[in-house]
Amino acid sequence: MPYQSGNIAIRGRLLWFAADPAVESEAAAVKYLEDGVVLIKDGVIAEVGEGPALSRRLPAGVPLVDHRPHLVMPGFIDPHLHMPQTQVIASYGAELMEWLQKYTFPEEMRYGDSAVAEAAARFLFDTLAANGTTTAGVYCTSHQISAEVFFHEAERRNLRMVAGKVMMDRNAPPGLLDTPETGYEQSKELIAAWHGRGRLEYAITPRFAPTSTEAQLEATASLAREFPDLHIQTHLSENAAEIAYVAAAFPWSKDYTDVYERYGLVRPKALFGHCIHLSERERAALAEKGATAVFCPTSNLFLGSGLYDLTASRRAGLKTGIATDIGGGTSYSMLTTAAEGYKVLALKGQKLPAFEAFHMMTVGNALAMGLADKIGSLEAGMEADLVILDSRATEPLRRRMERVETLEEELFALMILGDERTTVATYAAGRRIYDRYMARSTLAPKLDQMPYKTVDSGGASQQ
Ligand code: GUN
Ligand code: ZN
């Protein structure tokens, strides 16, 4: 691939956010250069400036890639997805608890095999890059090897990734269970091996309260105390049956959030997936402790979990990230995710303007993950993770753009109609990790190898 080096200059329509457009004026929040250049040195943004001027005084030997008229944005950030669910995505007809038992847990059992995990990690990173996503918060499985393989592949690609080995010691098949002791020990080994190495960070990852005993949550509490700066990721208040189970299994708890509070898991850099059915008390407790709620719209619609309440979160001062939740979620695209988020909020009588959505997908998610000093905006000193977007990539988009008069209208149509086809290129630390022209040429030979299999009608086939 050309331009492998992290020394490069990129020209295009630069767009990033200096503040949250939901809070600040458009003038203060939206940074837009109609013709700008991002100068990258050793994978970090060295300078951002006006295209005509900066392109004339580039350091000798730095190649300039002219992406005009395309948009140049910080790479998308996806704060919640599951590496081992790329082959259960789009599994038919179940709500959360049945979906886990019927499809997800049997699939995750396969990830004790390093070859299975390696194939999944490669597929995942290729697919995220094709969708313009450069950072993710990732759940591996309960197998230590699945996280080893994930981090190894992320390091090879020099990606900024946050991930952890899932801890779960009950309510799943034996092949997927760890114990309070092994969950603790293996997490510690992974932290020692990978946290802070290159651009990798470890997340303490108890799957959710229904799959951990109190003994395991105690062990998780110890880890959280020993590593106060680490991310924590888990699920919270997604589904009615899940919430009822938690109330019965932890009869001492005030509510679901209280279980995590009891074990010291509600704190800054703690990412709680879903947070749909929270009480005001729970929102206030999460907000007060600096935790983040992660809105997963395609998953919430697909599993019929419910409609996230962004207004209530904002009123409580609770930070919200937005994520795909592959494979309860149904799209790898953050654009599609935002589009479905818009529709979920419309059903709640709420709004998601385009500037707010693009803020969320970039620096908003960086803030939600505690990474905004490294990624999420186009400022000198930030890591050069970028996505180049073509808002006229498809015929429906081209036709729509003929009637667009403002940047905000363009972005809204892009988010509603866009997906991986709108990604022109993706850069990680200044290195091109995806290019649509190359992707098209390598995709073509695969089209005649369609691996259709006959599905036994007694099995988990579509109905
Ligand atoms: N709750 C616990 N595990 C999961 C999972 O894998 N996906 C979703 N959507 N919710 C969960
Ligand atoms: Zn999830």
Structure commentary:
The strands form 2 sheets. Strands 5, 6, 7, 8, 9, 10, 11, 12 and 13 form a 9-stranded parallel β-sheet that branches. A 7-stranded mixed β-sheet has the order 3-2-1-4-14-15-16. The chain is globular, with a radius of gyration of 22 Å. Helix content is 38%, strand content 22%. It has 463 residues and is of the alpha/beta class. α15 packs antiparallel against α16. The chain has helices at 26-29, 51-56, 96-108, 114-130, 144-156, 180-194, 214-226, 240-249, 256-262, 280-288, 297-302, 310-316, 334-347, 354-368, 395-401, 407-417, 436-443, and strands at 8-17, 30-41, 44-50, 64-74, 76-82, 133-139, 161-164, 166-167, 200-206, 231-236, 270-274, 292-295, 319-322, 386-389, 423-428, 431-435. Mean pLDDT is 94; it is low at 443-463. Zinc ion is lined by residues 80, 82, 235, 273, 325, 328.
Q: Give the CA-based shape.
A: globular
Class by alpha and beta content: alpha/beta
**How far apart lie the N and C ends?**
44 Å
Gyration radius from CA atoms, angstroms: 22 Å
| Unique ligands | guanine, zinc ion
Task: Report helical residue fraction.
Answer: 25-40%
**What amount of the residues lies in strands?**
15-25%
Number of strands: 16
Mean pLDDT score: 94
Low confidence ranges: 443-463
Contiguous helical run count: 17
Largest sheet: 9 strands, parallel
